[in-house]
Amino acid sequence: MGKTILIVEDEQNIVDILSYNLGREGYDTLGAYDGPTGLQLAMEQNPDLILLDLMLPGMNGFDVCRQVRQSGSSTPILMLTAREEEADKVLGLELGADDYITKPFSMRELLARVKANIRRVEMTPPASAEVAGGDVLRLGRVTIDREKAMVTKDGRPLELTQREYDLICYLAARPGKVFSREALMEHVWNYEGYVGDVRAVDVAVRRLREKIEDDPAAPQFIVTKRGMGYLFGG
Prior knowledge:
alpha/beta, 8 helices, five-stranded parallel β-sheet, 11 strands, four-stranded antiparallel β-sheet
């Protein structure tokens, strides 16, 4: 059975173009031109991935994303936005979106992201499996219990999204090793041979720092190596 993609976008020409190209890749598609219809289809049809525009009549993409997540659904959500404001992207990720792509985007990039997010859901064990082994990783004040999928700092559990958990697991399993943003997009986001917008990494790192660092402005755990990328310092 083919995977189903729900496209929630108020511009019919974009829905038509996306449906055509996704169909060529073997996906089935559903279309919604406003927020309430998109939310209804997301809840009733249980698609394998949602392409969700932010600016929608009736209910914006943020509210659709929030309600989908509040329902307990873990369906991958890829937000489509014409906005460049970092705050929009941060809010979307905070509400539970898995990633975003900024208009105008190349069809090749969008298809790659769709494929990667669906593959991530299908993977058993999950994306962090490379560092999973049912054991506990102790790194100074930070402990990662990979059997329980829990991260604690000074004994206090941290409330991380799946993406943040995957990111810290990947970096912490290789302390001191620097990874470029492109490498993290490839290994944590599962975007094979990734070339494109890497700001999603910076957004995820910033949110992770706000949860794990004593002073996010002077990070000790998720450290920036200027001009190179990020590493786990501990």
